Amino acid sequence: MAPYASDDTTSGRRKAVRYVVPATVVGVAAATIGLVPALADSGDPDLPKITAQQLIEKIAASDVEQLSGTVKITTDLGLPDLGGLAGSLASAGGGAGGSKDGSSADPSARLTELASGTHTLRIAADGPDRQKVSLLEDAAEYSVIHDGTDVWGYDSASNEVYHSTAPQGADAHGKEHGKGGAEQAPTPKEFADQALKAVDGTTSVTVDGTVHVAGRDAYKLVVKPKDSASTVGAISIAVDAKTGLPLKFTLTPKSGGAAVVDAGFTQVHFAKPAASTFDFTPPKGAKVTEGDDADHSVAGKEKGGAALPGAAGLGGLDGLNVLGDGWGSIAAFDTGSGSGLPSASSGGDAGAFGDFLGSFGDKVTGTFGSGTVFKTRLVNALITDDGKVYAGAVTKDALVKAADTAAKK
C-alpha cells in the first residue's frame, strides 16, 4: 500500500466538506523538517537504535504492496448523540445506510461511517490493481473490491451492489496513483501519510522506544505540534521495524482524555493474498447500480467538482482556500447561501433544526460579523451568519482570527 497523496483541488474540496478536516499543504522533506535527533530508548522488543529522521525515511521508503490483515479503528470526536437523526440526514443526503437516488453500496457514502465509533476492517492488497476492504458489522458485511478496472461495493444487509470502472493502476476509488485521487480506507498507513505532511519546523518528532503490534516488532514515532493554535496533543505511530509500514496510529487531543483516532492492525500478514480474495460476482437478486447511472447531483458537481455525500442543500461551494499551513491549516469556503444556520425567524422545520444545531455551538463576533463555532475534541468549525465556513484542527480563537483576517481583505 504505497503512499498516495493528491494536490488535486477537487479532491481537497471533497475532503474538507466530508470530513471537515483540511488537507495539510506541507510535504515531508527529510532535509528541511528540523527533526529532533532523538534515539530510540531501550525497551521491549530490543531493536537497533534509530533516529527520528531515519524512521521517517523508513516509512517513506516502505514499499509493501502485498498484505492481508485486520484493522480495528476507534474514532471519538466527542460529538453529541443525535440518535436516529444522523441516520435520517445521511439517508436524505446520500450518506451511509441509504441513498435517495443512488445506492447504499456506494463507497463514497458507506466509508463515512468510520468517522465515529469502533469498527473492524478486514483488508487485503496485491499491488496497485487489487485491493479489498471489508467493514464487519453485527449481522452483515460491507465490502469494496478493486480488481483491475472494476470497482465493486457490496452491502450484504440490503443486498445492493455498486459498480464502477477505473483505469488500470487506479486505487479502489477509481483514481490513478500519482494523478490525483480520493480518500482511501483509513488504515494506519493512510493516517500516518497525512499526519507526516504537517511535519515542519513547528513540530517535535522523536522516537519513543519500541512496541509489539500484531505480533510485529515496531518503533514508536511521536509527533507533537508546537503551534499553540493546534488542537492536536500528540500523534503516536508504531512503525514495523522490518518493512517500515505503519502498524498503529493514535492521535490524542491537546485537551487530554481518550484518543480521538486509534487505528491499528490486530493481525497482519505480508504474504500474497489468494487471487480468489478479489473475485466478485453480484449475488442472485441483488440490485446493481452502475456508477454512471447513480445520481450524485449534489453540491459541487454542477461546478465541475466531485459529488459531496451529505452536502445536499448546501448549494455550490464558492471556492475553497486553505489558510495557513502545517498544524494551523484552516479550510475556508463559502456555502453560497448568503446566510448561516436557519433560525426561528425562518419558520418551519428548517428554523427549528437550525436552532437545535445552534444549541451545540458558541456564538462569536468579530470584524467578520457574527457566527457560531461548533466544537469537537479535535476539529472546530465556524459558520458565519453570511454563510462562510472556517474549519480545522485549531482553537476557536484561531477560527475567529482567520475570519477577521479574511473580512479585512
TrEMBL record:
PANTHER family per UniProt: SPORULATION PROTEIN YDCC
Pfam families per record: DUF2092
TM helices/strands, residue ranges: 19-40
Keywords, comma-separated and alphabetical: Membrane, Transmembrane, Transmembrane helix
UniProt xrefs under SUPFAM superfamilies: Prokaryotic lipoproteins and lipoprotein localization factors
Region (Disordered): 164-185
Native organism: Streptomyces galbus
Protein name per UniProt: DUF2092 domain-containing protein
